[in-house]
Amino acid sequence: MAEIRNFTLNFGPQHPSAHGVLRLVLEMDGEQIMRADPHVGLLHRGTEKLAETKPYNQSIGYMDRLDYVSMMCSEHGYVLAIEKLLGIEAPIRALYIRTMFDEVTRILNHLMWLGTHALDIGAMTVFLYCFREREDLMDCYEAVSGARMHATYYRPGGVYRDLPDNMPRYEEKASKWHSEAEIRRRNDARHGSLLDFLENFCERFDKYVEEYETLLTDNRIWKQRTVGIAVVSPYRAKQLGFTGPMLRGSGIAWDLRKKQTYAAYDQVEFDIPVGRNGDTYDRYLVRMEEMRQSNRIVKQCIAWLRRNPGPVMIDDPKVAPPKRDQMKQEMESLIHHFKLFSEGYCPPPGEVYAAVEAPKGEFGVYLVSDGANKPYRMKIRAPGFPHLAAMDEMVRGHMLSDVTAVIGTMDIVFGEIDR
Amino acid sequence: MDAILNLWNSFSQDWPTLATLILILLKIVVIMLPLMVLVAYYTYAERKIIGYMQVRIGPNRVGFFGRHAFGLGQPLADAFKLMFKEIVIPTKANRVLFVIAPMLSLGPALAAWAVFPFNEGMALADINAGLLYLLAMTSVGVYGVIIAGWASNSKYALLGAMRSAAQIVSYEIAMGFALVGVLVAAGSLNLSDIVRAQSGSLLHWYWLPLLPLFLIYFISGVAETNRAPFDVAEGESEIVAGFHVDYSGMTFAAFFLGEYANMILVSALTALMFMGGWLSPFQGTPLEPFFAWVPGFVWLVAKTFFFMYLFLWFRATFPRYRYDQIMRLGWKVFIPITIVWILVVGLAVVYQLPWWFD
Questions:
Q1: Could you tell me the CA-to-CA distances from B119 to A281, A366, B39, B135, B298 in Å, in that order?
Q2: Is any Cβ of chain B less than 8 angstroms from the Cβ of A17?
Q3: Do B228 and A122 lie within an 8 Å CB cutoff?
Q4: Among B50, B60, B238, B328, which would you mutate to test the A interface (most chain A Cβ atoms within 10 Å of its Cβ)?
Q5: A335–chain B Cβ distance below 8 A for any pair
Q6: How far does B319 lie from chain A, in Å, by closest CA?
Q7: Is A24 helix (H, G, I), strand (E, B) or coil?
Q8: pTM given for the model
């Protein structure tokens, strides 16, 4: 009798639920996974090496493109490292703005995660609901930075600009597809400032989360597909280097926002949700609750920002670019501007590591400076990488359909994993 | 008009066999044409209805003669696109089986309509073993899927075929048992007789006495047609497109047509066997005379559309089952329930339970 061998299935890189360019070589016995071998590097763009070739500020834009669904959080990690290296701190208003946009980003990321996770498991309606809400948050990004995704809004020493006083509006003219009444309805929340718009969104958002939960949380099929799938014990989660919701899903209340606080997180109130069983369902619940908590933080930031106007950029001409009118009037400012946008600044030699709680986990930037205007070396700690490395352990013994559920629960984005 | 009729009469006297053949062919065309149009517009309805459920608009651009009539031209445009696309046959595929499979999938889905009574005495073939014929036809369809999966010589397709074989075979049993219940209750395999046995009132229809069988039949029907939440055979996010991953152009379209024709068939059969077919819902109520002018066919279509809508609603609502969970549901839940209920129905018939079986 012929020997029976397992068969190998190439899952991706072109696969609808490979979340980009994951190449997963699966060794299967029928439908059961005996071994999973993730291959990375198909989206490698050499971010770390590129950063060595240009002044510090010019790499902020690359950070957006790492984890392209939690843009500002990655920027935050990088900017924080530079600030640490320079020994400066951003003004308090900038810290609140950063906190607010970090949480907006977290909601953006978790909405994307929820949509794709549900889509992988076959519930496609949630996906479109999530994108409906993402649209509003993208508009906030746009209002503040001009770009809907790759904002480059955070700068060492603060943020690029203060929050705008008015939101962009749709042109109130009926078209072939939209009536004037509809456009007016869309503009309803956009007559005030960005904060008004965001506050309006925050008030609505809890209801939206409920809406997603009615579709999934108590759905028997959803539970059958997620409960008990890819269980990770707290001990193993720590050993595997999990961070973020993946770690908290296993029941460990570790959150950099609380444990190594940065920005204005020590000034706002929020809770850290933790799971109990460490399965896919728990991680789902953790992330759903995180969205609510983020919403809570955003509300507090809005209230604070309304009351406390002030500078959003450090008053240090060596780091912060001068105002336009100063530049036209003063020789010194012009020189500063020129130096800053050609050479940049030269931090003292040394090395720093700064980490933020990105939506996916700990996003850290390790910078080595030799005193030049560009980093000597940069290393990025992407949260997704250790998660993906645990793929084999998490899916072994499960079935093919669970692989998609596990990819979803890891919240993988290849921008940051392949860098 | 009279002249044509006279001509036809003399023709059928001279060549009776030929005349019967032509008549049957005409009837087939009369059934198939609306069916095909319905299939095309069912895809349109699916995209529109699910679109609105998902807060988007759905197709609204393609229209007729420069007017975008709510995108009503979309199904035709899709059909033409598929017709003119190249049929790619993978090098290592088994060419004969590869081409036969889609036909095998579409053929039975259409053939099953032969015994379907659209109204009192309005069936192409009012045969006494109608129910058996239906069971046979719907089971043959699965061979198309299995052969397609095998012939493509692709791992994804093979997995899809494997899943679909296991799934359809097990749901066939639950479905069969549900039909046995109907058979016991009506005492006939003839579809028209089954409908007649339900007459009386809305509460006489079999959905009430056979409630578990009704639900199981419809759910099995969803599983049998590989629709969400039982669409593991094509499981978009897992095995890409499953058994038809390598199909393109008209061969793909045949699978597509087969699937939608089957959905319509299952909806129509559910309406027929559990919701009183062409019977008016106002039968036995004071309202009956007011609705007497409505032809039975309209009621049948309305009921069918309701079930067709359910298919779409399911798809927008539910996540997908895992393959082994489907098996468990089929074998451990549906089949035992149907067996028990057949017993209950049998006893009810033997003891002539008033209202339904007296």
A1: 50, 77, 21, 21, 9
A2: yes
A3: yes
A4: B238
A5: no
A6: 4
A7: strand
A8: 0.88
Q: Give residues 279 to 308 of A whose Cβ lies within 8 Å of B.
A: none
- Inter-chain CB proximity A401 and B322 less than 8 Å: yes
Q: Which of B242, B254, B246 is nearest to B90 (CA)?
A: B246
Whether the Cβ atoms of residue A261 and residue A240 lie closer than 8 Å to each other: no
Distances (CA, A) of B187 to A407, B180, B194: 53, 10, 8
Check residue A376 and give its pLDDT. 92
Residue ranges in chain B modelled with pLDDT below 50:
none
Give the tokens for residue B45.
């309805």
For A36-74, the DSSP string reads EEEE--TT---HHHHHTTS-GGGGHHHHHTTSTTSHHHH
User: If you average pLDDT over every residue of chain B, what do you get?
Assistant: 85
d(CA A96, CA A268): 9
pLDDT of amino acid A1: 62
Query: CA A373 to CA B12: how far, in whole Å?
Result: 99
Using a 10 angstrom Cβ sphere, with 0-12 exposed, 13-18 middle and 19 or more buried, the burial of residue B142 is: buried
Euclidean distance between CA atoms B277 and B304, whole angstroms: 9
A14 within 8 A of A381, measured Cβ to Cβ: no
Please, are residues B39 and B261 in contact by the beta-carbon 8 Å criterion?
yes
pLDDT of amino acid A295: 92
CA distance B320 to B34: 32
CA dihedral B155, B158, B163, B168 (to 10 degrees): 160
Q: What whole-number distance in Å separates Cα of residue A301 and Cα of residue B292?
A: 67
> What residue has token string 């095309």?
B40
Query: Tell me, what DSSP letter sits at residue A355?
Result: E
Query: Is the omega angle on the peptide bond into residue A321 within 30 degrees of 0, that is, cis?
Result: no
Report yes or no: B312 and B50 within 8 Å, Cβ to Cβ: yes
Contact B143, B165 (CB under 8 A): no
The Cα–Cα gap between A106 and A72 comes to 9
DSSP state letter for B278: T
According to DSSP, the β-strands at A23-29 and A32-39 are antiparallel
Q: Quick check: B339 and B346 in contact, CB under 8 A? A: no
Task: Return the bridge partners of A29, or none.
Answer: A32
Determine the Cα–Cα distance for residues A146 and A141; give it in Å rounded to an integer.
7
Lookup: tokens for B268:
């129509």
Cβ within 8 Å of residue B169, ≥6 positions away: B142
- Taken in order A32, A35, A37, A38, the sign of the CA dihedral is positive
pLDDT lower than 70: segments of chain A? 1
* A240-271 confidence digits (pLDDT tens): 989 989 999 898 888 888 888 888 898 899 99
Beta strands at A350-358 and A158-159: parallel, antiparallel or unpaired: unpaired
DSSP assignment, residue A35?
E
| Contact (CB<8Å) A9/B155 | yes
